[in-house]
Amino acid sequence: MNWNSASEFFAMGGHALYVWGSYGACLLLMVVEPILAQVRRSNALTELRREVCARKESQDET
Amino acid sequence: MNNRIINWFKFASPQTFYPLAGKLIPWFWALTAAFGLAGLYIGFFVAPTDAQQGEGYRIIFIHVPASWLSMFIYLIMAFWAALGLGFNTRLSGMMASALAPTGALMAFLSLWTGALWGKPMWGTWWVWDARLTSELILFFLYLGFIALQSAIDDARRADRAGAVLALVGVVNIPIIYFSVKWWNTLHQGASVSLTKSPSMAQTMLWGMLLMALAFWMYSIAVSLTRVRAIILERERHAGWVEELQELKS
């Protein structure tokens, strides 16, 4: 075990800014990117639903 | 409708790939979590403090995986782009487009964590040396690929233009990889090499490899999610898309 206490762990031997700055940016991007990809897919699905509805309506009219 | 006939040579058609990708995504997320937790545990609690760099070296557990993946994803992207260019297959171009943002993210993380590592160890955030500059060019190649594709309305033409850019850019990958050998640079040499035993403690190496696997699985999971979105966007006039269960709920 490298750490005697939680505060020692978070201090990272004086390199806290650099270590947590790296891990923080990594975590943030890896949470945001999948959400954006998922949003893109649900937007595509919404768009498709609208198109299918419109097509059906125009078929009913004729 | 001729798409009721099963064509066994078209396993890679968007129609068959879309549900397959949907089934695979949760598994890749599970693998990401498993490898990531194991890698972080080893990286923070098992791997010893570095004699020279203290605790600051622990950035390696994300810096090296992000750098590897930024190069690896580019090669995969160029592979799909070439396949699309050569055989005019629909899915290839979609795969290349789906990979680009994830590759850009990895290149960015590589540069970002590198800057945060360079500051305490070298005393500077950035130097214009061969390794750093060629990695920055890789980041710009990804951004250029994305920008070029989004500037062209016709998806198939966008694929072809992007493919040419991606293939020309491949020359940058060996330059990044061998830059630490070919030029005098501030950046240290390869941490892991095929020809000699690794120059680091076993536990550090294991932490790094597990994190690299986690990053790899992450990249697959997120780009499969994105390729599903791209398939829906591009195939919206195809009959099979209208039949999707997701559309009816």
Question: Can you give a write-up of this model?
Answer:
The complex is a heterodimer of chains A (62) and B (249). Chain A has 62 residues and is an all-alpha fold. Chain A is built from two helices and no strands. Chain A has helices spanning 6-11, 16-61. The longest helix of chain A has 46 residues, at 16-61. Chain A starts with 5 loop residues before the first helix and ends with a helix. The two termini of chain B are 25 Å apart. The longest helix of chain B is centred in the N-terminal third of the chain and has 33 residues, at 14-46. Chain B has helices spanning 14-46, 60-87, 90-122, 130-151, 155-169, 172-182, 202-234, 239-242, 245-248. In chain B, helix 3 packs antiparallel against helix 4, helix 3 crosses helix 5 and helix 4 packs antiparallel against helix 6 (172-182). By secondary structure, chain B is mainly α. The relative contact order of chain B is 0.17. The A-B interface holds A 1-3, 9, 12-15, 17-19, 21-23, 25-26, 29-30, 33-34, 37-38, 40-41, 43-45, 47-49, 51-52 and B 44-45, 47-49, 54-56, 58-59, 62-63, 66, 101-102, 105, 108-109, 112-113, 116-117, 119-120, 218, 221-222, 225-226, 228-229, 232-233, 236, 241-242, 246-247.
